[in-house]
Write a structure and sequence with these properties.
Layout lengths: L1 H11 L15 H15 L5 H9 L4 H4 L4 H6 L1 H18 L8 H24 L6 H13 L4 H13 L4
Helix pairs in contact: 2-3, 2-7, 7-8, 7-9
Length: 165
């Protein structure tokens, strides 16, 4: 058990967005906590497995780093290799992802992308115009992938906070 705890804690210290100049840096730990919180906002009764999945969804980045999504989108071979590595590292340290339903996977993905959007709005509000493109990609993804009613509501509120155009 101590190995899993130490591995998890180390994984939470990994820096996110290392290829983007941010005003306020963010770690996987910050992100994972935010995703878990967002999960609780997207569903009235999140299962224990879903909360655990939210907390663990990027824990393997202690080994792989936070590879930019755009890089994974451009290379199926790299994405598949990273998926294999992530599975190996999770199995090796006993941090396997909890089994969640297809609906819960959708909730987790939306919470993950919503956190990206909130982070980019925060950066934009501090004047970091580099984040506008990332925010646009995040909101477009969410709008185009069957957003939950709660996700739609949050996206509209985000647009009020920071115009996307």
């Amino acid at each position: 058990m101590i190995e899993r705890i130490l591995h998890f804690r180390a994984g939470m210290a990994v820096q996110r967005y290392h290829t983007v100049n941010l005003i306020v840096r963010e770690t996987v730990g910050h992100h994972s906590c935010n995703v878990a919180w967002l999960v609780t906002q997207l569903t009235d009764t999140p299962s224990r497995a879903l909360i655990q999945a939210a907390l663990l969804h990027d824990a393997e980045e202690i080994h792989t780093g936070d590879v930019p999504a755009t890089t994974k989108w451009r290379s199926k071979m790299l994405r598949d290799s990273l998926d294999d590595l992530e599975h190996f590292y999770r199995t090796d340290v006993g941090l396997a992802m909890p089994v969640i339903t297809e609906n819960e996977k959708a909730i987790l993905k939306q919470a993950d992308m919503l956190d990206l959007c909130f982070k980019m709005v925060e950066e934009l509000s501090m004047g970091n115009q580099q984040c506008a493109n990332i925010l646009s990609r995040g909101t477009t993804y969410l709008w185009e992938n069957q957003p939950l009613p709660q996700t739609k509501e949050l996206l509209l509120k985000l647009e009020e906070l920071m115009p996307l155009k």
